[in-house]
Amino acid sequence: MHDVTTTPTLASETPEGLAAAARRAEAWFGEPFLSDGEDAAVALAAGTARRAALEDALAEIESGLSEPSTGWKVRYGLMLGLERVLIDEPARTASGTELRRHQVDALAGMLAELIAATQRAPEDNGNGASGNGAVGEAELEEEAEDDFDAGFVDERALADGYHGSDPGAMRRYRFRHPTASGKTIAAAGFVEAARRLGVLILTHRRLLVTQFKRDLTAEGYADRFTDAVLKGSRAQVDDPVTIQTYAWFARHGGELDRETYHLVLCDEAHTALGEKTSAAIRAFHEPLYIGMTATEHLIAKQVSDVFPASVDDLPLGDAARRGLIAPLRCLRVPPAAAINSVPIVGGDFEEQALAAALDHEALNQAAASLYRDRFGSTPGIVYSAGVEHAYNLAQEFRAAGLKAEAVSGRTPPARLAETLAAYERGEINVLINAQLLAEGWNSPRATVCMHLAPTASRRVYQQRIGRIMRIHPRKEAGVVVDFVPKAATHNERVVSLHALLDSDFYREGARVTPAPRRRQQRRARRRLSPVPWLVPVTPDVARRLAVIQREWQRIDPKYLDDDEQRFWATIAGRQIRFDQRAEFARKFAEGRASKGALEQFLATCAAENPNRRLRMTALLDRVATPVERADFDDLVTLVTQAPTWEKDRAAGVRVLLRAIGEGKAAAPEQILARWTWRLARATRKVQDRRVSTEFPEAKRLLGAAANSRGHRHEENVNRLVQVAKAMPLPVGAALLASADGYTPRANAALDRAREELGTIEDIANALADNLPAPKLTARKSRRRRRKRKGGQAAPEAAVAASGDGAKTQAEEPGSPPAEDVRSISSEGAQTADRPEAAEDAA
Length: 842
Hints:
Elements: H1 15-29, H2 40-43, H3 49-62, H4 70-87, H5 101-118, H6 132-141, E1 172-176, H7 183-193, E2 199-203, H8 206-218, E3 241-245, H9 246-252, E4 263-266, H10 275-283, E5 288-293, H11 299-306, E6 309-313, H12 316-321, E7 328-332, E8 344-345, E9 348-349, H13 351-358, H14 361-375, E10 380-383, H15 387-399, E11 404-407, H16 413-425, E12 430-433, E13 448-451, H17 458-465, E14 478-482, H18 497-500, E15 505-506, E16 535-536, H19 541-550, H20 562-575, H21 581-589, H22 595-608, H23 612-622, H24 629-641, H25 649-661, H26 669-682, H27 684-694, H28 698-706, H29 710-726, H30 729-738, H31 744-756, H32 760-769, H33 795-807
Helix pairs in contact: 1-3, 3-4, 4-5, 4-7, 5-7, 6-10, 9-10, 14-15, 20-22, 22-23, 24-25, 25-26, 25-32, 26-32, 27-30, 28-29, 29-30, 29-31, 30-32
């Protein structure tokens, strides 16, 4: 093979000479070395990959070869074919099918890797001789055919990866596209690029061999199909395409003619990880390999061990956003059977133990009823825990009135083909199976994927849901039914759709994959509608709190633990608006949140909410039930000192005094007395006006006590105390609340008088009577009316203005609260449908 450091074999370095050499090599191989309009001096410059291909081609021509050698085809054939395919806009298959952008990306990524590999030294590409192939071939010949289990991979056994000589590793590549995104068309693009190469396509089931042949026939490659070309025989056609299973390849890979096949396409590459299959791939190491896979799991450890180089990676979310696959919605159903005791073997639940736990008549009937009630005749696929479970389920589904059929590995091939065809025609709506249709089977009309047999394998799960991700005109979105608790996190043994996609929250019926950027012209009917609530399901604490903070209005608190409920209540208390209170109250009225969360919400709302009416309503609700000592002390501090209560301090103090008078504060009498007089002093100006209205001499007594010192001050305080005791309780309590003592004797006299005035409950109620009742109605805006002709205002306007003015005055002491006062936690739900007044300014 050519080395870039050797002397070129070209007779002329001029553009004309390069172009002439390129035409000569093109006639020899059949692929163009120069495209129309390309500058030969640039495209075939020294050191480029195409220049290397040209020089090596000329060298083989001069050596007398009438056609390229196998080594030359492997190194340069696909590269030149990809150049030809990608030069056209858009790229197409032989039948004219246009490749989509992600499919072109896979071809372009492969071309970039081949160009880079060509420009490296040959020994760096694994082209050197090695005895590994012979050893591998000998090992394969000793294997017993009945030991091979096609498609089964023990994920635990693959964790350590492969160790040993692997000369073909640098010629094995992979790309990842989600199921239903068109990997078969991408494969057809590679077959088109390899029109001068022998192609071997491997898949893991005989059913998929037929499917691949059908799809490639539609793309125009039927004339290249041939049976496997073994050693000592020749292909019936030039540049053959052979399609076989991994099981066949593991048994007969050593018998293949190594001069015939130059490119191997591995469909569902994650199924090529078994010990015997991967050994067969390493033994047949001369060709280029391209592994196609849909699963993003196992890539880092296992698929990358067999197929080291990635040429393209299209995540599931990006495919959904581009509209390449159908969006996915999810319904979680709490499981009726416990599978905690079912062991995990080989990366998934042990089948017999799982079937024993799930295959019961009552559970099967419940599953059939669930499907019928929620989805009716919507086409779907159901995964069971085993073959017998599948047939038992099918019987119950049919008994429920559904057109269902079970298929399994026991189903004869002809019968299986007839069943699948009937499903496509709509004669069957539900296919029940045990892993038979988890990979490779395509049916665009399949809409519902029900996991009646849970799985612990992310790879298996992603392959299952891939069956409903194909776009269909009558399918708005695929629906995944997971039998897990609604609040199950990603740490559960059972894999769920949200765990697979690492979603932060679960909202029943909502799309889990991103919405397509472009909506289809014809919108199909939605099979599953979103509910208004959601619950965080990510196990990451920071992300859970972020969901609660961002989506607090839609959070269903019953799925949160105590600490998260308090955090949710704190966020809600700060941000809730007045017009949201009724809907929010239902969550507490229905018992979805704990008492501690309610108390936290009311306390936070009273302290930090910017709406004055909400703060007052929250305070009223908070003291409507008994309040612990520490919590009530916080409320006293809040109302008496917080800047947010500066304009409503008198009304807030009245609420707390009423709570003390009604026995709602759980504290010793001494503490109650301290709170009562502390609250009274916080409103001393209002108390002073009250006592002055009832007893005009109060101002003189208070002034004398305040303006005197020494024994004269003590005499004035004693006189004030005597008057206070003789006055009605509201007036006397207000007088004592407004007085200050400057000496120990004066303070002692005031304290004795306050104790002897009455019980603390009576004093608290009396002091509350002196304060205005809280007003929770919105202020009515004054509308300016047009003046009549002549400049005289309408008399109705004057009446309205005087009425509004009267309503803005403080209510009389002791008057009941406004008629439309509403409770956040108890009565809000009853007024949800009533129009609310405009929200007060903070």
